[in-house]
Design a protein that fits this description.
The chain is an all-alpha fold and 247 residues long. The protein is 77% helix and 0% strand.
Amino acid sequence: MNSKSYLTGPVIFMAGLLALIVTWLVMEPVALNHAFNQDGYSPFELATIPFYAALIPLVWWKCPFTGSRTRRTILCAAVSCVAFMAVVKQLDWHLWAMKALYPDVVTSFKGTPFKMRFLTRAATSSGLPIPLGAKALAIAYFSLFFGVFGVTLAYFAKDLIVGFFKKVPPAWSMCCFGAAGVMVQLCDRMPAWVRHLRGIPKPKGDEIDSISSLFTALEEGGELLIALFAILAILQAHALYGKQAKA
């Protein structure tokens, strides 16, 4: 790696952002929404899934971690768990499982059951009790996805901060990973915020406006960028620390 390798992540981020904006400019809102957002099964969403799935074999093949075999195994397992749960989220397998096991609860609960209010309530809006098994399924999803990711991120927080200021390539790639994650979360809520600030009424029915299509492109594109930055960080870390990992 050369002295400018740390810029690879930011360059990919800016290039990806530019490509998404250009795509939004040249496509009609309805066509863009169809290509990017079909409940996990649009062409773009399906194209994203292999990148998340590839993280599982990649992290074991090109181990980016150092230390004892036990440490490396635990960390690789944590990355594999989060990557698998990302695939689950993309394909909505967690929703499918909840609907298959507890159809009445899902039908009578307003909104997705994978929210904190589902865990804190004793019954649905129609008065149907929420079984402990349904809550346990939601907790398992949160724990395996956000819990494992949060603990792993906290474990490496100091290294990432130090690595950022020392211009260590994997640290910069993970910072871009975080920026893409923030973008995804903001773009998920941004259409409603923009319409509220500008006094624009919400589109009726299945109507797709320009605002919604822009943030759909940025949200779904951001999810692909997240996977790309994770792959890049693994490869960069392996190139830097691979010999130590094999020691």
